[in-house]
Amino acid sequence: MKKGILLVEDDRVDVMTVRRALKDIKVTNPLIVAGNGEEALEYLRDGENEKPGIILLDLRMPKMNGLEFLKVAKQDGALRSIPVVVLTTSQEDQDKVDSFDLGVAGYMVKPVDYKQFVEVMRTIDLYWTLSELP
Amino acid sequence: MWYKRKAVAVALFLGIVHILVTHFSPPPLTVNEFGRAAIFIVVAYVIGYVSEQRAKGENALRESEGKLTAMLQSIGDPMSMIDKDLNIIWANENAHKIFGDDIVGKKCYAVYHNRKEPCEPYPCFVLKAFQDGKVHEYDTQVIDKDGKRLYFQRTANVALRDNEGKATAVLEISRDVTERKQAEEKQLQLLKELETANIELKDFAYIVSHDLKAPLRAITALADWLSTDYKDKLDEAGKEQLDLLMNRVRRMHNLIEGILQYSRVGRLKEEKEAVDFNALVLGVITMINPPENIGISVVNELPTVVCEKTRMEEVFQNLLSNAVRYMDKPKGEITVGCTDEDGYWKFSVADNGPGIEEKYYDKIFLIFQSLKPRDEVESTGIGLTIVKKIIETHGGKIWVNSKVGEGSTFFFTVPKERERKEIKRKEEGGSIS
Predict the structure, then answer these.
(1) pTM for the full model?
(2) What is the SS3 string spanning A35-69?
(3) In terms of CA atoms, which chain A residue is nearest residue B225?
């Protein structure tokens, strides 16, 4: 069975966008959705669940935002090695610096245009397929 | 008093002489008797001399005391003398004026600080002065007789000592620094407000970029899916409306980006460096990649100026792409030039485009102002506003000269500030996007 993709995102339309884009580029891995950092940690720490192959992380979320999630996840030996790609609206340099400081594998800015968004997803898929993972 | 003592001494002296003359002569004085009389005389003389000298000294002391009191009384700074039990035992005129006529005999903490107990932290500076005999300087807040709060800068120092040298009174000299203190406080307050405003502005930019853009993205995505998923069910009018919807969303997005860009100028400063404008302009022209019918040329050698490079690129990028975008002639000619003026460089970007009516010369630099309907030329109207802000933060000016139908020339100045080459301007918490 293919490894899952964990999407940490609170906006329903953004979730639909990712789901649709994955379908468009014919990625069939199961998509698991967590509404914020806390939910994501809960899922990841539940022994019943298989660890995802990649985490797509929004930064701006209620309860526990993306950077807060990264701080916790990168401290956790069991979660540290899962590659995280930030998927955000923020073009602020500070967010980029903070994300890479916390060991993310990539930082993608969500384009307004859906077709461009599909290209972003294609890039992530390509990276994920080509890059050797532990 | 002294003359009384002197009179007594003289009388005594004369008395003794008188007794000696009348009672003991004749018969003639014995040596013993003579000696005794001499001792009397000497004693009387000494008494007279001592009392005279003492009187002289007391007089001088009283005189200097009087001078000193007058001086202390009339000094503009409030002063008071305080004993070991913290009672005010003396106060000058100014202290009375500020704290009341009846303060002598009262406790200093009651008069100055409206307290029932001695001041905290204990011991206070007056008590410390009693203990160590040193001069203590400190700032304190006092309450005057009308209940008004005043700021005093004070010195406490031992003023009186008893025979054994133990301190018996401490003199407090105060200076009213209320005005200065209030000015300082006001300045501090303003600084704090400014800091808050800056943080708020940063937060605002963040909120705008994240929270306002997110729903827009959702709207475009949904509109896009509607037009793809329901292609068969939509007629031409429906498709056109969806297209217009997406177009407006994109415009909204550009406006938000424009505001963000505008707020970054001045908020984020990059380090100034020596910039070769020949290379800079060539780079911008390559980036704009003008269509074949429009030529952009540099008419003379451009200078090297110390400035923020990316900002200057933005200036040329905006001016040149405006000239390209609005070009209405079949063969467009755009020229960049520069002249050496006194103290500054004057750059120019000239085109042979449609030109601008004189009444719009100021309006074009205002935020979100565009002279063309947006549907004709897609533009936010932020470009020239940003250009103006950049030029002005560099200490220069920008203006336009134009002839309708023949073209426009934008001029801007950049001061030659070689001496400020080393100044590094960085803003905390800033980031360059």
Answers:
(1) 0.51
(2) CCHHHHHHHHHCCCCCCCCEEEECCCCCCCCHHHH
(3) A114
Closest chain A C-alpha to B223 CA, distance in angstroms: 10
**How much is the pLDDT for B48?**
72
Determine whether the interchain pair A115/B224 forms a contact, defined as Cβ–Cβ distance below 8 Å.
yes
Q: Is the pLDDT of residue B422 over 60?
A: no
Whether A65 and A96 have beta carbons less than 8 Å apart is answered as no
Cβ atoms B231, B394 nearer than 8 A: no
pLDDT tens per residue across span B243-269 = 888 888 888 888 888 877 777 776 667
Residues A6-49: tens digit of each pLDDT: 999 988 888 988 898 888 888 888 899 998 898 999 999 888 88
Which pair of tokens denotes residue B157?
A: 């120092």
Answer whether B220 sits within 8 Å of A14, measured CB to CB. Answer: no
Please give the pLDDT value at position A103. Answer: 87
Per-residue model confidence as pLDDT tens digits over B33-73: 666 666 666 766 777 777 788 888 888 888 888 887 787 77
Could you give phi then psi for residue A88, rounded to 5 degrees?
Answer: -145, 170
* CA distance readout (Å), B113 to B5, B99, B143: 50, 10, 6
Domain-by-domain residue ranges, chain A?
Answer: 5-127
Q: What is the DSSP string of B307-341?
A: E-HHHHHHHHHHHHHHHHHT--SSSEEEEEEEEE-
B158 beta partners? B170
Distance CA B267, CA B331 (A): 40
Residues B364 and B388 sit within 8 Å (Cβ to Cβ): no
Number of residues that make up chain A: 134
Phi-psi region of B411 (alpha: psi -120 to 50; beta: other; left: phi over 0): beta
CA–CA gap between residue A108 and residue A86 (Å, rounded): 6
Between helices A93-101 and A66-73, what is the axis angle to 10°? 20
Tokens for B191, please give them: 């600084």
> How many CB atoms lie under 10 A from the CB of residue B268?
20
Q: How far apart are CA B5 and CA B39, in angstroms?
A: 19
Range in B204-208, B252-256, B300-304 the model is least confident about = B204-208
Cross-chain residue pair B220–A112, CB shorter than 8 Å? yes
Instruction: Tell me which architecture the domain covering A5-127 has in CATH.
Output: 3-Layer(aba) Sandwich (3.40)
Q: Which two three-digit tokens encode residue B225? A: 């899916």
